[in-house]
Write a structure and sequence with these properties.
The chain is of the alpha+beta class. Helices cover about 20% and strands about 35% of the residues.
């Protein structure tokens, strides 16, 4: 399961909508080994394409070095799909090179709908996972969980018993 702060999701969705009709891409870094996404890093789609994304090689080198210097790793690698559902394409699967990362996809095909899905992609095998959105601005214990797409959509609201 991917647990991620609402403010980071909002920034990713804003980036995807801003770059539409081209695909947007970026990374959310976090402390090595913690599986906690904490720092949103929007990147440029060097392909400038509506159907494909590619990190600029120099920007990627700079970002990965910066993460290394800060004892961080890419916890989330994200991109948008502009005309299709938020599901990895064959190209996305073939380019997935971080087996420990969550691959987050945002579909911008509907301007009034937030379609967000997360996947693990290891050795070409795609496994969808729930996205647990923590809304720390409202209540650090309030959580929304989303699962979109082929599986039944669910929204769970969990509150701690204080």
């Amino acid at each position: 399961m991917l647990s991620i702060d609402r403010s980071i999701i909002d920034a990713i969705v804003a980036h995807a909508r801003r770059d539409h009709p081209d695909e947007a891409c970026g990374v959310v870094a976090g402390p090595v080994g913690a599986d906690t996404p904490t720092r949103h890093i929007p990147m440029e789609n060097a392909a400038r394409s509506m159907t494909f994304y590619e990190f600029d090689s120099m920007e990627q080198l700079r970002v990965w070095r910066e993460m290394d210097d800060r004892d961080e790793e890419p916890v989330v690698i994200y991109h948008s799909h502009t005309a299709t559902e938020a599901y990895p394409s064959r190209t996305d699967i073939s380019f997935a090179g971080e087996p420990g990362a969550h691959y987050l996809l945002v579909s911008t095909r509907e301007s009034d709908t937030e379609e967000i899905r997360s996947f693990r992609i290891v050795d070409g095998v795609v496994t969808e996972e729930p996205v647990r959105i923590v809304d720390a601005a409202v209540d650090p214990h309030a959580v929304q969980s989303y699962m979109f797409g082929q599986s039944p959509a669910t929204v769970d609201y969990e509150c701690s018993g204080r």
